[in-house]
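Lab manual, section 2.4: Encoding a predicted structure.

Procedure: take the sequence of the chain (107 residues), apply the prediction step described in section 2.3, and record the output as structure tokens. A sample record is shown.
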Amino acid sequence: MKFLFPVVFLVALTGCVRSDVQSFASNKMINWENRVYMVTDQQIENTDKLLGTIKLKSNKEKDLSRNYSSNFYSVGTAVYSIAGLDYKDSIAIQEDGDKYVKANSNK
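Recorded output:
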């Protein structure tokens, strides 16, 4: 009986662990002008102005607090505003030549 209780307790405890939580590095993120943007799969057709480029790529969480950084995109990746939207809410990231994806601010 002494052995059975700890085993049942451990099995119950491991069943309560959330497996749907994603780690920091699994989300495509960009820090742009002190705002963190989460990249979506939504493609953007109408970009507006070139805002600049990614200056730092790092998979270290502490580095994402630096402006113009990303945990996924390479240095030099172009960042654009989206026609009709405030860049403080959403931006467009250039991928694969003429493909652009939307990133939304979490603020």
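Check your result against the sample. Helices lie at 4-15.
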